[in-house]
Amino acid sequence: MVGETEKRRRVIGGEEDRISELPDALLLQILSLLPLKSAIRTGALSSRWRGLWGQRWPVPSSLCLRLPPGASAAARGEQLAATDRRGRRRMDCFTLTLHAGPLAQPDLMRCLDYAAACEVEDLHLRLDGSVGRGSRGGTRRPGMLTVHFPVGSPLLARLSVRGLNLTAAANAMVATLEVIHLHSVPLTDAALRRVVAACPRLRELEIRYCRRLRRIDFTNVGAANLKSFTIVDCSRATELRVPVAPRLRSFRFSGTFFSSNILSGGAMESLEHLYLCSGGPETGLPPTNLPSAVPRLSNLTVLTLCSIALQYVSAFAAKNVMESKLCSLRELHFLMFGMANSNLADIYSFLKTCCCPQLERLFVQLPAYTHDSFTENFLEVAEEEPPKGGLENLWLVKMTNFKGHRNEMQLVEFLLRKASCLKKLFLIAPKEDHHQGLRKVQSDVLMLSNFLKTKILLLERASANTQIIFSEPDGHQIQALHSEVFVRF
Predict the structure, then answer these.
(1) Do 213 and 185 contact (CB within 8 A), yes or no?
(2) Scanning 22, 255, 360, 475, which has its CA 20 to 30 A from the CA of 220?
């Protein structure tokens, strides 16, 4: 028996791991005392703990209730009754997915009361079928279902609402809520302020397609713990005010740039991840101070800019004689809506103005259309001289929608000549979407591919070890960090 016990011992840091030797019943009791996030992290202790958190309740710890379109009132009632028969026991996650029409307000309240009684930590409410781009998901409709905030669970940590109305009580307090995702929610400015003010521990806020918002203002609402803030296509919003937020690490914005915005030095100086995308074709540069802060953000490690944001930075640099070092930047991503002379000049201007001595990964998303912008009314634009250095640590470049057009080739030549540590250069041909969901490489690119490959492989390289790869890598190992933010235009 002693030998058998020795075999079952687990040693951590040279000491016997006695906790992992406890019976499952006791381990599950320990896990039941932990918040969901902490319980999941115990899987790193040893193989014995891995996945054990999912068994910490005697019934399934997650419940997904889906009410399909066309379901009768009797069928809906039976689903809700089956949920009640589960009993009001602790639950980690509750997901309610419904379509427009199949649920009445009292039924929704019944589901929310049940989730609160089960002390749910993750709550996901989703209305399908009438939300998303091109819909009126951001405008309140007569008879729209309403979620009253706070929802009542004493342990709620994560709330996600899509396509439902959300109202917030004044002077509410939700001391446990850390993450809020709102998608196509007809939220007013005042309601958003009340929601944020009610959550002193809020660390992640994401707002998508909330088209009733006009003024996003978090001054004097206590957002001191906010670490990640995302705004996507809140098309009526014209003003943004974020107070000094010393813990803010990630700010991601996609949509029409605000004509009035204040991201004060205190709110921005700690940023590590920044995503700025204008969301459409170039229509001039309205007054805004959002992109002009980029050259001053010395703590950035990941930066994504669209071609319009690049224009702002370039224009700002031209008016303000300056040279800024983004000393911590490791990953840079350009989302190019065009690749004319002016666009290439903006890229060069950025690399000159914002020196990135530690840059390791560069992603360039080129426009998908097949004609060459250089040949269309851009010949009068003076060409910008490329920067002389600053890419000494760059080891990975990926260019998608590459077609071999003049300015695309110029950028490739520049990178090969200047990036002395470049290991891999991915040049990925554009792909075409079909109504059946299939994707195929465009035939005209295929016709040119062999010629392009030969031409590119003969280009001068600063590093003889540089691999030039013309196919998408297996899986998603080579993806930009901000890929999940991308919005298709």
Answers:
(1) no
(2) 255
